[in-house]
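Quick illustration for those who missed Monday's session on complexes.
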Amino acid sequence: MTRTKWKAASRAALALAGAGALAAGMALFATAPAAAGTTLGASAAEKGRYFGTAVAGFKLSDSAYTTILNREFNMVTAENEMKMNATEPQQGQFSYGAADQIVNHARSRGMSVRGHTLAWHSQQPGWMESMSGSALRSAMLNHVTQVATHFRGQVVAWDVVNEAFADGSSGGRRDSNLQRTGNDWIEAAFRAARAADPGAKLCYNDYNTDNWTHAKTQGVYNMVRDFKSRGVPIDCVGFQSHFNNDSPYVSNYRTTLSSFAALGVDVQITELDIQGASAATYRSVVEDCLAVPRCNGITVWGIRDSDSWRASQTPLLFNSNGSKKPAYDAVLAALNNGTTPTDPPTDPPTDPPTDPPTTPPPGQGGCTATVSVNQWTGGFVATVKVTAGSSAINGWTVGIALPSGATVTNAWNANRSGSTGSTNWTNVAYNGQVGAGQFTEWGFQANGTAGTLTPTCSAS
Ligand code: XIL
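Prediction with XIL bound:
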């Protein structure tokens, strides 16, 4: 996601924001120096960032709640409704009603959506909690694929994996049923997410990773560095930033954000709350984000103190009666004082080849297909890249011979014939047209062992 897109989302929000729109819109187009924004979202947008909040679906009928939501924020995270137990309560039966309601509320008002979360040791459905081994790995990847496919094009960034590192001094992975499927479970999840929604930014998200000197922070940092060096598709790191007396804000937070950003990922503050809501601490967090060009947004974990998962800590920007707290004023002032990052702060992920400019003639230049395989004991995910040759193509057919014992269980972004032996794959409606030299990606999951796959490609 580029800065421009965060800004565009915010402008759309402003256009629909009713009475406040005129004043805020004037701020956007005023001559330099830009007038101060009057809401968190508008002020963040002026700095090329977003300002978001967690939303609980059942509160959307509370007009005091939605009044603040619609006025102040231009990014939304579902507080619980996209978690594994919510979206796949029974294995293979997906339930999107509550999440869709939040997504529709947000997007119809020009707000963007962060997806939270595809794979996590916590808030798993009961059937998954009792699974292990290759069956669990397979179920997890299917979950990632199905959910990311459902929200394809509607979610700007996904917390693909949440909280996979251990607290304390080890700097290693947290023990969990997912971790016990093999250390490569995280990268497998990222690859499946990329295949299912190539346009979304893919984030790793965790808590207690704010202090640069902590082993957990270093553990996550080393994983991200490793992923970047090996081409695992990761675009961003989320810092939950639940600050309290046990894990307080520290002044090296900015170092943490900038060090991760230097690895070539965006950084986002994803679940901010601060015990006691010190205005000075909130101001510091905002200033730290604004000081790092690739820190592209801040999300607070709820609107009013009464909405907080830690309500007794009164950690948010609005009182339980909906009035602005001193921390709100500090955040708004810090946003309005902040700097705008210089371009280009990001190297965006490969955008899906959505709309080629014209309908090309049948591709005389043909196409090529390559496969990358993520194998684990008993199964694999194949990501297939179809690249058009010297001319644009209108459609493609890929043939893949699977070794005996390999059986396709599901696929995305392609039509399939055959699930064993010789399989044939053709484009779906939205990815047949590929410009000269451009590519599109699709994939499938299978039981068994992939071995070396050598696909053929023919263009139409
Ligand atoms: C919390 C929600 O706020 C609660 O409503 C729910 O009961 C438990 O989960 N880290 C995360 C979030 O990534 O999903 C958690 O949200 C808070 C900690």
